[in-house]
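Q: Could you fold this chain for me?
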Amino acid sequence: MPTPLIIDTDTAQDDCVAILMGALSDEADLRAITMVGGNVDFDRQVENAHMTLNVAGRLGEIPIHLGCRRPLVRPWESAENVHGDGAGGLSMDFTDCAVEPEHGVQALIRLVAERPGEITIVAIGPLTNIAMASTLDPTFVQNVDRLIVMAGSNNARGNITAAAEFNVWVDPDAAKIVFGAGFEITVVPWAPLTLDHAVFSRDQLAEIEKIGTPLSEFFLRVCLATLEFDESVGIPGTTHPDSLSVSLALEPDLATAAGRYHVDVEADSELTRGYTAMSWGVHGLEPNATVIESVDGDRFYRRISDMLARETTPNRPFLSGS
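A: Sure. Below is the predicted structure, expressed as structure tokens.
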């Protein structure tokens, strides 16, 4: 039976691949996409989500709800220096590309209340929407089946500062609320997990180029835009933690090792803002999350490449920018 799924996203680069995974996988029943302020300009994130559904041939089929445009208490700060516009300059005719009138936070609350204990939320951006939903509705936490978050690093390096991963750094106050709220949380960390098991090398990207479908061409366009940046900071390829998060929601045995941790977030110090302190059981703290420690990276890559080999008919032609 397909997994009922909501993807909470700041759509750019691998977020697009994550949406494709939710929209095209037989194991997924993607109920909604909720947008949160994060990677790039909010309205551009919405356009990127429409373009992703378009290449999947599902434009207009999956509701898109606009959530929080900025963090709870801080000004929004982007990752446009990494992602550009998040889609490699692609565009299309967005005429009549509608979003839902219901706010993303209210949609999250309603959707899980309609099917309590059944829906998995995969949060691949800052956790602002999730924190707001858990604050507004005390039943929200219990109504969510699983919350899978792409967040933090497991006692390892960050990707926005030495201490912090971007999603948590952008809204550490929201992340602190979420980790203290009582969810059944699975964490997909940036380091070491993503860097060890979810980086696609130039050789793998060349294999994807040979596939020659609309999906593979879209994948390369949105992901190659970040390749130069990744390589400039010592990462030998493109990074895919967001699509890994959705893959783990649909195929949990992709994980080859995981541990129970107590996870807390530094929200006060500017030096270590967004640091995710992951205690592995020796400090007398009750675990509140399962942290994925390793995955079958080859199997994950095959899952992505098999998906990209599917033939789809985009609903509208793409316009290629610079």
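A (continued): The radius of gyration is 18 Å.
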